[in-house]
Specification:
The structure is a single chain. The strands form 3 sheets. This protein has a two-stranded antiparallel ribbon. A hairpin with a 6-residue loop joins strand 3 and strand 4. The protein is mostly beta strands and 71 residues long. 10% of the residues lie in helices and 45% in strands.
């Protein structure tokens, strides 16, 4: 299986709201298509929908010294 993970880490001691930009080249190399993906955070067990598009960032909220591994 070809699986794509989105991994984002906050090394700060402050909470962070960020946008992760996935470049067009990554879409081409990974064979991704823009759209809404249902993802599961492998660290917390939370599930959410991610709107993935090379023209806009993926919004993430991270607690201090925390991260996400979305599958």
């Amino acid at each position: 299986d070809n699986e794509v993970l989105l991994i984002v880490v906050n090394f700060s001691d402050q909470p962070v709201q960020a946008e992760v930009v996935i470049p067009q080249h990554a879409f081409e190399v990974l064979g991704l298509t823009p759209g809404t993906y249902h993802a599961h955070d492998l660290l917390s067990g939370d599930s959410l929908s991610l709107n993935i598009d090379c023209n806009s960032g993926v919004a993430v909220n991270l607690k201090p010294n925390d991260g996400i591994v979305m599958k």
